[in-house]
Specification:
The chain has 441 residues and is mostly helical. Helices cover 62% and strands 5% of the residues. The chain has two domains: 136 residues, no CATH class; 218 residues, MetI-like (MetI-like fold). The chain is elongated.
């Protein structure tokens, strides 16, 4: 006979029944939860503000690099200067001509009072880019009929005058405290008053290679070098990383040896990137004798650095495929290799691609390992192949950041903006791929 006071079967007795929080206890718990939520929200806000300050600082310093100031000069393509020997105009003679003298003659024609003083002449010539002769040479070589004519040509201002035109140099400061002299300001005002100074989008920043002159420097060479380097990285790291992940996850026996391999892969993902640069210096350059500062070497070094990331991401994607897929394929008579190649790998490919793109984005932003293999060299020419000397965007930023000219400061920030744009684009592609092909089991 059951005790009338005993509780029904399965119901908690008074001794084990959990106490109900009421009054001050409940209010304290709710207050603790509110404080925790507020701390979390505050952390997100602080992180967002720091990010906005960082991006604002970069944009405020670099946006002006996307336009360049020019001055219109009346260039006399003198036949005496371009074809001093007379006779028919030959391309070889035009190539050897002194086109810089044409620019200087145009400046002296505009300000004859500066022609009699050597110091004033040097200051006057410094108002325009010292590489302006290249523009005139290309114009004449493309159209030799310009010889003997006078043309209005837009010439780039020098880096100091361009900086002054953008308002970064205060004209009210004493002459000794600014890089632009009073005479240069007077000459600038003369051109500006005639409407001969104008600003336009700096196309050369995206189509030119590096230069000692800030107004001529561009990122195209570094951009091509980055593309070539990442191509080598992808071609090496993706197939090796995926095959290693498939073997470790699907075929490798679980023993101490494979456990040791997994531990080492996880450890390699945390190794400082400069260690991979030292490895590349010792193996690829010193032992195999590959060319220094070449995209093929940079790609191999970055592939070694990216491999652990791709292997770990690929293994996680393979683990996410339900075992029932494998069991069903095996039950229908498929071999283990067919199960992996026909069923498991296609289903895991979205996650593998996402991890690969994130790894490539990480490789795009690396600088330290590339410095060790010589990709910090000053490269003017655009690389045409995987073995040509080249540099990459992060290293280009490093080179420009070490230059003292104010114009290189804005180009450094502009290159950072371009680099961040590529990183955001690659991460956005990874997110879109994951959203597009993601499957929930």
């Amino acid at each position: 006979m059951t005790d009338a006071t005993s509780s029904p079967q399965g119901a908690p007795t008074d001794a084990v029944r959990r106490p109900v929080l009421t009054g001050p206890h409940l209010r304290r718990r709710y207050a603790t939860e509110r404080r925790f939520r507020m701390l979390g929200l505050g952390s997100v806000i602080v992180a967002g503000l720091i990010l906005l300050i960082l991006l604002g600082s970069i944009v405020s310093k670099g946006y002006s690099a996307f336009w360049q100031h020019y001055v219109d000069l009346d260039i006399v393509f003198s036949e005496e200067e371009l074809n001093p020997d007379g006779g028919p105009v030959e391309l070889e003679t035009l190539q050897r001509a002194n086109y810089l003298a044409l620019v200087r003659d145009a400046l002296k024609q505009e300000f004859p009072e500066a022609a009699g003083n050597r110091r004033d002449r040097r200051t006057l010539y410094g108002m325009v880019s010292p590489n302006s002769d290249i523009l005139l040479r290309n114009m004449v070589l493309e159209d030799p009929s310009l010889v003997g004519t006078t043309q209005t040509v837009s010439i780039k201002l020098s880096d100091d005058m361009d900086t002054f035109a953008k308002g970064y140099i205060d004209r009210d400061l004493p002459e000794s405290d600014r890089r632009v002299s009073d005479k240069e300001i007077t000459w600038y005002d003369h051109f500006d008053g005639q409407g001969r100074i104008f600003a336009t989008f700096n196309v050369d920043f995206f189509t030119s290679g590096d230069s000692r002159e800030p107004e001529e420097a561009g990122i195209f060479g570094a951009l091509v070098g980055s593309i070539l380097t990442l191509t080598v990285t992808l071609l090496v790291s993706f197939p090796i990383g995926v095959m290693a992940a498939v073997y470790l996850e699907e075929f490798a026996p679980k023993n101490k040896f494979t456990d040791l391999i997994e531990v080492n892969i996880n450890n390699l993902a945390a190794v400082p990137s400069i260690v991979f640069g030292l490895l590349g210096l010792a193996v690829f350059l010193n032992f195999f004798g590959l060319p220094r500062s070449a995209p093929v070497v940079g790609g191999l070094v970055l592939a070694l650095m990216t491999l652990p990331t791709i292997i770990i991401a690929s293994r996680s994607a393979l683990k996410a495929v339900p075992p029932s897929i494998r069991e069903a394929a095996l039950g229908l008579g498929a071999s283990p290799l067919q199960v992996v190649t026909h069923h498991v790998l296609p289903l895991a490919m979205p996650g593998i691609l996402t991890g690969t793109i994130i790894g490539m984005a990480q490789a795009l932003g690396e600088t330290a390992p590339l410095l060790m293999i010589g990709m910090v060299a000053f490269i003017v020419d655009i690389p045409q192949g995987f073995t040509d000397p080249a540099t990459v965007l992060p290293v280009q930023v490093y080179i420009w950041a070490d230059s003292p000219e104010r114009a290189f400061v804005e180009r450094t920030s502009a290159a950072i903006m371009v680099l961040l744009g590529f990183l955001v684009l690659m991460n956005a592609i990874a997110v879109l791929l994951r959203k597009r092909f993601e499957r929930r089991w």
